[in-house]
Design a protein that fits this description.
- This protein has ten helices and 18 strands.
- By secondary structure, the chain is an alpha+beta fold.
- Strands 1-15-14-17-12-2-3 form a seven-stranded antiparallel β-sheet, with no helix packed on it. It has a five-stranded mixed β-sheet with strand order 6-7-8-9-10, with helices on one face. A four-stranded antiparallel β-sheet has the order 11-18-13-16, with no helix packed on it.
- Helix 1 crosses helix 2 and helix 6 runs parallel beside helix 7.
Length: 504
C-alpha cells in the first residue's frame, strides 16, 4: 500500500472543481443529467458496498466561449451493488436510460452457431442425419472403420466399438452432435460426410491418437498455444502466439529438421485433442472453441520450415477436426497477412470466412472485449486475467470487471461506498495509461480524516498494466479512485473490487 497522508477536511470532489453551466435562456425545464450505460456484471450479493462512478469534464481555458445552455458540464453514472438488506428505490431509476448501440468489427460477417438439437433441424437436415446414422451403423457392423489386418494378425469377425474424441459412436445423443459436424463440413451431403468420417476414424487409428493423448511431449511450446478463460457464450478460448517463434533457439528446436517438425505436429494434435475432450458433446452443450491468433512479431512467409509445418498441420486439422471453431479472431495483423488472406479468400467457403475477424494492434483489446469479458482476457491483451496463484490470491475469472470510457480531458471518479467494517480490495487498469491515478478514503463522520491511500501518480504505457491495492475500513465512509485523462483521446478504464471480513 502506498504512503498515507492525513488532512483535516475531505478534499473537494471532482464536481466541485467544475463550474456550473449558465442557466438556460429557454423557459423549458432543464434536462436531467445524461446517463451513460456502463458494461458491468452484478457483484456477488455478499458485498456490502455501493459503487458510484462520476465523470466530470475538466475546466477549459477562460478564453473559450461559455458552454451552450443545453449542454451539461458533468455526467454521473451509478452502479449499485446490492446490500444484504433491501434499499429504497430512487425515483431517478424510473427515468429511461438511452440504449448504447455497440458496433461490431467491420471485418465481421454475421455468423451464428447452428443448434445441435435434432428438434431444431430442418426436414432435409434431419433426413440427412438419419441417413448418415444408418451408414455408420452398417459401417460398424461391416467393420468399415477397421484397419486391414496382416496375415500374422487376422481380423476379428465381431464388430468393434468405434470411439472418436472419447465418445462412443451410436451410443447416445452425443453421436448426433458429432455426426452433425461432419454433415455441416460437407454441406449435408451424406455420402461425402460418411467418407470424411470414415477417413478420420482410420487416420486416428493409424496416428495412434489414444496413445498420443497420454504421451509426454514436453512443455517447450506452452507459451505458443494455450487455453485461457471463456468467451461470453461459454466457449473456451485458445490463444496462438506465433511471435514466440522469433526466439531462434525455440524455432530451431521446433522446426530444425523433419523429425522436429513431426514432433511439433504431434504436439499440436495432442493439444487440440485434449482440449476437445473437455467439451460438452451433449445437444445444446458447448462443443466448439473460440480461437485467437496473435500475429505480433510473427515470422513472415519467408520462414520455409514454419510454413511447411503449418501447412501440414492445417491440412490434418481441416480433414479430421471439422466444425470445432466458433470464431477465429486475428489480432496484431501485419500487412502481409492481409495480403495473403486476400489471395486465398476466394477459395474459402462463405461459412468459413464468416467466422474470421481481423484487427490491428490498436484495436486488439477493443475487439476482444466484444466477445470476451475483460476479466477473462489475459493481461498482455488488455484484460485482467492472470493465473490464480499465491501471488494473485484475490481475484479470479469469477470476479467480474466493469468497463468505463474516460472521455478526453475528463476526470473519472469511482466511489466505493462502504456500509460496514471490512477490507476492500481492488484492481484497475487504463489501457495504454498516460493518465494520472489517485486513491483516497473519506469517512462519513465530519470529525474524521481523509486518508490519502495513493498519492497522485502519473501512469505511463511503460508502467505495470494492472494496479492492485487494499484498505482496511474501521469507520464507515467511501473510497475514491480517480483517473484524470489529460489527453485528447478517450481511454478505457477497467476495475473490480471485493470486500473481505476482518476481526479486530
Amino acid at each position: 500500500m502506498a504512503d498515507t497522508e492525513h488532512t483535516h477536511q475531505p478534499p473537494a470532489t471532482a464536481e466541485e472543481d467544475t463550474p456550473s453551466p449558465p442557466p438556460p435562456t429557454s423557459l423549458e425545464p432543464e434536462p436531467p443529467l445524461a446517463s451513460v450505460e456502463v458494461e458491468s456484471l452484478a457483484q456477488p450479493e455478499e458485498h456490502h458496498s455501493t459503487v458510484v462512478t462520476t465523470v466530470v469534464e475538466k475546466e477549459g481555458p477562460l478564453t473559450q466561449p461559455p458552454p451552450e445552455p443545453t449542454l451539461l458540464a458533468a455526467e454521473q453514472v451509478s452502479v449499485t451493488v446490492p446490500d444484504k438488506e433491501p434499499q429504497g428505490v430512487s425515483t431517478e431509476s424510473e427515468k429511461p436510460k438511452p440504449v448504447e448501440v455497440k458496433k461490431i468489427p467491420e471485418s465481421l460477417v454475421s455468423f451464428k452457431e447452428e443448434s445441435n438439437k435434432v428438434s431444431d433441424l430442418s426436414d432435409s437436415e434431419g433426413k440427412a442425419l438419419e441417413e448418415l446414422k444408418f451408414l455408420v451403423q452398417e459401417g460398424i457392423k461391416n467393420q468399415t472403420f477397421t484397419i486391414a489386418k496382416t496375415q500374422e494378425a487376422p481380423s476379428v469377425d465381431l464388430p468393434q466399438e468405434v470411439f472418436i474424441w472419447g465418445v462412443p459412436l451410436m451410443k447416445d445423443d452425443r453421436s448426433d452432435v458429432i455426426l452433425l459436424k461432419f454433415l455441416r463440413a460437407r454441406d449435408f451431403k451424406v455420402k461425402e460426410s460418411f467418407g470424411m468420417l470414415k477417413n478420420t476414424i482410420l487416420w486416428r487409428k493409424e496416428f495412434n491418437i489414444e496413445e498420443l493423448v497420454d504421451e509426454n511431449l514436453g512443455d517447450d511450446l506452452e507459451k505458443v498455444v494455450f487455453m485461457d478463460g471463456h468467451d461470453k457464450e461459454g466457449h473456451p478460448v485458445c490463444y496462438n502466439v506465433y511471435g514466440e517463434f522469433q526466439n531462434k533457439e525455440l524455432y530451431n528446436k521446433t522446426f530444425g529438421d523433419e523429425e522436429k517438425r513431426n514432433k511439433f505436429l504431434r504436439w499440436r494434435i495432442q493439444f487440440l485433442e485434449k482440449s476437445i475432450r473437455k467439451l460438452d458433446f451433449n445437444p445444446g452443450g458447448i462443443n466448439t472453441i473460440f480461437q485467437v491468433s496473435d500475429l505480433k512479431n510473427s515470422p513472415g512467409p519467408g520462414k520455409r520450415e514454419l510454413r511447411l509445418a503449418t501447412r501440414q498441420a492445417l491440412q490434418l486439422l481441416q480433414d479430421n477436426y471439422p466444425e470445432f471453431v466458433a470464431k477465429q479472431v486475428f489480432i496484431n495483423v501485419p500487412w502481409w497477412y492481409l495480403a495473403f488472406y486476400t489471395m486465398i479468400s476466394p477459395f474459402m467457403t462463405q461459412r468459413t470466412k464468416s467466422k474470421f475477424v481481423f484487427t490491428g494492434p490498436s484495436k486488439t483489446a477493443e475487439t476482444l472485449y466484444k466477445y470476451v469479458s475483460p476479466e477473462q482476457v489475459p493481461v498482455q491483451y488488455g484484460g485482467l486475467s492472470v493465473d490464480y496463484c499465491e501471488c494473485n490470491p484475490e481475484f479470479s475469472f469469477n470476479d467480474p470487471a466493469t468497463e468505463i470510457i474516460v472521455k478526453p480531458a475528463t476526470k473519472q471518479t469511482v466511489e466505493i461506498i462502504v456500509n460496514e467494517k471490512c477490507i476492500i480490495v481492488w484492481e484497475l487498469r487504463v489501457l495504454g495509461w498516460e493518465v494520472t491515478y489517485s486513491a483516497e478514503y473519506v469517512p462519513n463522520a465530519d470529525s474524521g480524516y481523509t486518508i490519502n491511500i495513493q498519492k497522485l501518480r502519473k501512469m505511463t504505457a511503460a508502467d505495470e498494466p494492472v494496479v492492485s491495492s487494499s484498505f482496511k475500513i474501521v469507520e464507515l465512509g467511501k473510497i475514491l479512485l480517480t483517473i484524470d485523462n489529460p489527453t485528447s483521446k478517450k481511454k478505457k478504464l477497467l476495475y473490480r473490487f471485493k470486500d473481505k471480513p476482518y476481526s479486530d
